[in-house]
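@channel sequence for tomorrow's demo:
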Amino acid sequence: MERICVFCGSSSGARPEYAATAAELGRQLVERGIGLVYGGAHVGLMGTIADSVLGAGGEAIGVIPRSLVDKEIAHTAVSELRVVGSMHERKALMVELSDGFVTLPGGSGTLDELFEAFTWAQLGIHRKPIGLLDVCGYWTPLLAFLDHAVEERFLRADHRDTLLVEREPGALLDRLQSYEPRTVDKWIDRARG
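structure tokens (generated this afternoon):
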């Protein structure tokens, strides 16, 4: 893997463990020779992981819409800052530049990025691994909802299982690096016609 895209909050959250884990993930990326692609901001967990990667001598590529640059939240010290026209362009470029994804805690924007990458994987648009770093059980309610979606036949269990979940950055990076994509039909009821 050359680069991993990290989706995460533009806030730091309520627990110090969120920022500590973001910083540790940044250090681990650099130790493994993996570059960072992220949302391009200097605030919240986004700023924490970028600063961690840069502080350890690694590559950090930020992708940010012009509207957010104008609000002065762009991280101007990253290795490369790609300014795009919209949030849609941002997500598409982040996917294009990356070999896999890690999702740290975050809010609606983080969920939007995660679910777009997850949906694209289900549809076969990409075959890249997607991981959730479940810091302090942050993603536990979301995982329970996805299990419910499987039970209610709106999501295949095989697709649910493609989300790699770990509590520690090193364990998650190990799983992303050893990931073997599977081809599974998206439509549960296709055979029923």
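heads up for whoever presents: The mean pLDDT is 94.
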